[in-house]
Amino acid sequence: MADRTGDDLVRMLAALASPHRMRVVAALAARRNYVSQLARELGITRALLQVHLRRLEAAGLVTSTLEISEDGKAMKFYEVRPFAVELTPEAVAAASVTLTIERAPGVMT
């Protein structure tokens, strides 16, 4: 986690703090997949899946590539980027000194 900033850690943990997104990561850890198939496998709409995929991609947890199928359809494939986080009080303390994300209003320090 040495190269990850506090902001990166916040984005990563926030992205993973959703049952849907955890299921997306689990499915993509098994194999890369395209949006329509992944939505069917997870039992959610493509629109909802795309919201979750955008959040995961913004956090750096998944990547996407656009590919053209044999019949000419554009298919967006997603796959998990390798990541590991060791959450210890010391790691959180070290990451916290690099935070630039604002505190939520009313949150005490």
Please describe the structure with a list of short key phrases separated by commas or semicolons:
single chain; alpha+beta; Arc Repressor Mutant, subunit A; three-stranded antiparallel sheet
List the helices and strands and how they pair.
Layout: H1 6-16, H2 19-30, E1 33-34, H3 35-42, H4 46-58, E2 62-68, E3 74-80, H5 89-96
Antiparallel strand pairs: 1-3, 2-3
Helix pairs in contact: 1-4, 2-4
Describe what this molecule looks like in 3D:
With about 110 residues, the protein is of the alpha+beta class. The chain contains five helices and three strands, in the order H-H-E-H-H-E-E-H. The relative contact order is 0.21. Helix 1 (about 5-15) runs antiparallel to helix 4 and helix 2 packs across helix 4 (about 45-60). It starts with 5 loop residues before the first helix and ends in a 13-residue tail after the last helix. The protein has a single domain (about 5-95), classed as Winged helix-like DNA-binding domain superfamily/Winged helix DNA-binding domain (Arc Repressor Mutant, subunit A), CATH 1.10.10.10. A three-stranded antiparallel sheet has the order 1-3-2. The mean pLDDT is about 90. It is elongated and about 50 Å long.
